[in-house]
Amino acid sequence: MRIAVVTLFPEFFAGPLGVGIVGRAIADGVVAVEPIDLRAHGLGAYRQVDDAPFGGGAGMVMMIEPLARALEPLAATHRVLLSPAGEPLRQPTLDRWAEMPRLTLVCGRYEGIDERVAEHLVDEEVSLGDFVLAGGEAAALAIIEGVVRLLPGVVGNPESTRQESFRGEGLLEEPQYTRPAEFAGWAVPEVLLSGDHARIAAWRREQRLRRTRERRPDLLTDFPEDGSGR
Ligand SMILES: C[S@@+](CC[C@H](N)C(=O)[O-])C[C@H]1O[C@@H](n2cnc3c(N)ncnc32)[C@H](O)[C@@H]1O
Hints:
Blueprint: E1 2-7, H1 20-27, E2 32-37, E3 50-51, E4 61-62, H2 64-71, E5 78-88, H3 91-97, E6 102-106, E7 112-113, H4 115-120, E8 124-127, H5 137-148, H6 159-162, E9 182-183, E10 186-187, H7 197-215, H8 217-222
Parallel strand pairs: 1-2, 1-6, 4-7, 5-6, 5-8
Antiparallel strand pairs: 3-4, 9-10
S-adenosylmethionine (SAM) binds next to strand 5 and strand 7.
């Protein structure tokens, strides 16, 4: 898989792409991540990439021309614009992108991006959540990590990415514990030490439902508890 990232800050990516499972996947040739310097496509001697908004208002808006130039050679890839106004990102979207041979992530800065980019130059517009970042780069890194860990062979045990939050029944994962069985008087649930696999499986499912009901009832609305609609 190849992932291009159109950004005003290509240097943002050097450290994070060198560590952990993403770093290893890049070293193993499973994925290539190419930051593309938007400034190189800027206009004139000053490589201008932004201008004042039509109609007035605070801040600067990223111009369409540099983005059109940067995206032209990437027209055959799946182009994703990062924006607080985009569709909220959820696991099935990452699953879909992980199947694609080429993905392009477009990072905004300043007040935002000329709307014609979203309308004409990308395939999708997504948001990381209901909050505002200073730029799309941190969102792009989150997406790269979320996609790369789904690529075949990247996570040692494939079960890890099949049995986790938002998978299967679409619930949050149950709580996890490891040694010691007691710390500072805080004991792990007895059932997990019982060796009774049927009881453990029943407890885990009950915990998944309880946590989801308490913390993310919206997930149960999407996927009713009785299993209908799954
Ligand atoms: C300061 S933000 C612009 C916010 C914009 N003025 C607004 O009110 O919606 C600059 C850039 O950061 C990125 N960004 C900020 N928040 C984001 C989010 N929640 N999800 C994805 N990208 C985000 C986008 O690429 C955006 O163009």
